[in-house]
Amino acid sequence: MKRVLLIGAAVIIVLVVGAAGALYWFLSGDGIRRTLEQQASAWLGQPVQIGSARAQFFPRIGLELGDVRAGNPVRVTLRSVSISASLQPLLKRRIEDAEVTLAGSRIELPLPFSIPTTGGDDTTTPEKASASGGIQVVSIRAITLRDITIASRGREVTVSADSSLAGSRLNLQQFTATSGKTSLNATGTVELEPAIDAKLTVKANKLDLDELLALASAFSPPPAPARSSTRSAPRATEVEKPRPTRIVARITAATARAGDLEVRDLAATVESNDQRVSLSPLTFQLFGGRYDGSIVATLGRTLTASIRSQLTNLDVAQLAAYGGAADTVTGRLSGSGTFSGQGADVQTALANARGSGTATMTDGEIRRLDLVRTVVVFLGRPAADAPPATDRYDRVDLRFALANQIARAETFALRSPDFDLTGGGTLSLATKGLDGRFNLVLSQKLTQQAGTDLVRYTREGERVVLPAVLGGTLERPRVTIDAKAAVTRGLRNETERRLKGVLDGLFK
User: Fold this and answer.
1) Closest to 308 in 3D by CA, of 256, 349, 356
2) How far does CA 149 lie from the centroid of its chain?
3) Where are the alpha helices (DSSP H) in 352-389?
4) Which one is predicted more confidently, 401 or 111?
5) b/e sequence 235-260, b meaning 16+ C-beta within 10 Å
6) Are strands 246-258 and 197-208 parallel, antiparallel or unpaired?
7) Fewest C-beta in 10 Å: which of 60, 141, 241, 317?
8) Count of CB atoms within 10 A of residue 391's CB?
9) Looking at residue 33, what DSSP letter applies?
């Protein structure tokens, strides 16, 4: 009896091994490869080619595919695909606790097909899924992506991820994306139904805002074509417009770049909804100070952006050097403004910006202006005991408007130990050219150096007031005293003084 049992066990083992071998031979041969190609082609409505197909039985039932290509022309190339799942749910046409790995692949958007879904109750009712011949995806415990390149409209991003799927929720344990100078790491959740809705936390060592907006534009749906004026009756088979993708991400970056401007410690909440992208609030450190504000951009063939800015305690010398006017001015700057612009990219939109704002500079010096020297020369030789004069200022208050790359100072007031300057003018951002007219009010110390007649003709109260003209460029500003206007003003003042004396004598 023992011998019979041993022989029976051996026969059973041989049969099992033989059946497993036959099954492995069938699943690894051209038969299963062709079957999968036919089913995938029918499922997507586009030709699918599979280079190789191999079954696995340990540690779980699975399938490994190689060199998978989809589309005509080919838009999806999958170098390696590995799928495994628990056997018992598979027998009930359910995928549970599955594992999916994709590596070394390329996807070119837009795809010539959409991924079919069973939709409706079929995704939640196993009985209906089974009756209809479909397979219900219940859970995927691991979705692994390695070096997947996604291309769209001339832009490419390479991603890798570790994630899982529970129902229609994708959980991202780790997601990395690299494109050009931008590299980021994200975690969060993505709801896949009824539309993609992602909530992410993103950290980056380096971020390029130009690339970020360009990627958002490249991967957003193209603008809808203009509707024909000719109305037609709606068709029963008309496909409903897909709901827009929404992404909300909290981004932090050690460094970030916009155009040729580099900033530090960037933090922003980014929301992308269809072709609208907003960064609000947006904060970062630059030029030794801080920026608080927001950017709202509408993507498409042309980028349209609205910018709200609040600047605090910027180093004016660093700002001037960035603007191409190094070693011209010092101090600390705070201000605010609202601007809008449009262009092919961020830099072009900024160049076309329009808006208005206010600014205040404190405790600095306007170098090479030589304003005090100009005044002293105009007044004549200074007194022997006159203290040395400088072009330092205590405070500058400015209200300005920006349009066509021209910044126009609607009001300008400078306070300094030696003079006060009030008036208005323009600055050309393209040429850095200056043009303005001001009233120059001398301090009492400088007033004392003026000749008696000049003081008599140009004094207003206890201080001399001179009309001044600003010209030159930011690098080489030039201030001159308008002698003709000064004489005209002096004559008017003297006439008014004498007329007042005559009137006072008549009424005594």
Assistant:
1) 356
2) 22
3) 371-379
4) 401
5) eeeeeeeeeebebebebebebbbbee
6) parallel
7) 241
8) 19
9) H
What span, in angstroms and rounded, lies between the C-alpha atoms of 209 and 199? 20
Q: Which residues contact 351 (CB under 8 A, 6 or more apart)?
A: 341, 343, 405
Peptide bond into 467 cis (omega under 30): no
Q: Is the peptide bond before 89 cis (omega within 30 degrees of 0)?
A: no
- One-letter amino acid at 405 equals Q
CA atoms within 13 A on the CB side of 213: 28
Tell me which residue has tokens 């460029």. Answer: 473
- Alpha carbons 508 and 505: distance in angstroms, whole number: 5
The residues with which 472 forms a beta bridge, in sequence order, are 477
pLDDT of residue 491: 55
Instruction: Give, in order, the Cα–Cα distances in Å from 458 to each of 7, 268, 468, 489.
Output: 127, 55, 13, 7
Instruction: Report which DSSP code applies to 230.
Output: S
In terms of Cα–Cα distance, which of 325, 330, 328, 333 is closest to 309?
333
C-alpha–C-alpha distance, residues 176 and 100, integer Å: 18
β-pair type (419-428, 197-208): unpaired
Token pair recorded at residue 79: 């170098």
Q: Which residues contact 375 (CB under 8 A, 6 or more apart)?
A: 419, 440, 442, 446, 466, 481
The pair of three-digit structure tokens given for residue 501, joined into one six-digit string: 């004396």
Q: Which runs of consecutive H residues, i.e. helices, occur in 227-309?
A: none
Cα–Cα distance for residue pair 383/385, rounded to 1 Å: 5
For 254-304, write each residue's pLDDT tens digit: 888 877 788 999 999 989 887 888 988 999 999 999 999 998 988 777 888
HSE, side-chain direction, 13 A CA sphere, residue 474? 21
Least Cα distance to 339 among 301, 312, 311 occurs for 311
pLDDT tens profile 147-202: 999 888 778 889 999 999 888 888 999 999 888 777 889 999 999 888 889 999 99
**What backbone torsions phi and psi does residue 363 show, to the nearest 5 degrees?**
50, 65
Q: What are phi and psi of 389, to 5 degrees?
A: -105, 150
How much is the CA Rg of the chain, to the nearest whole Å?
37
- Phi, psi (deg, nearest 5) at residue 220: -85, 160
Distance CA 267, CA 262 (A): 14
- Residue 61's pLDDT is 78
| Structure-token pair, residue 69 | 């290509």
- Asked whether the beta carbons of 445 and 455 are under 8 A apart, the reply is no
Q: Do β-strands 94-95 and 136-137 pair in parallel, antiparallel, or remain unpaired?
A: parallel
Q: By three-state DSSP, how is residue 61 classified?
A: strand
Hunting for tokens 């059973």 — which residue is that?
A: 12
H runs (alpha helix) in 354-482: 371-379, 444-449, 452-458
List own/partner pairs for 345-350 with CB under 8 A and 24 or more apart.
Answer: 345/210, 345/213, 345/214, 345/303, 346/209, 346/210, 346/213, 346/258, 346/259, 346/303, 346/305, 347/210, 347/258, 347/259, 348/303, 349/297, 349/303, 349/304, 349/305, 350/259, 350/305
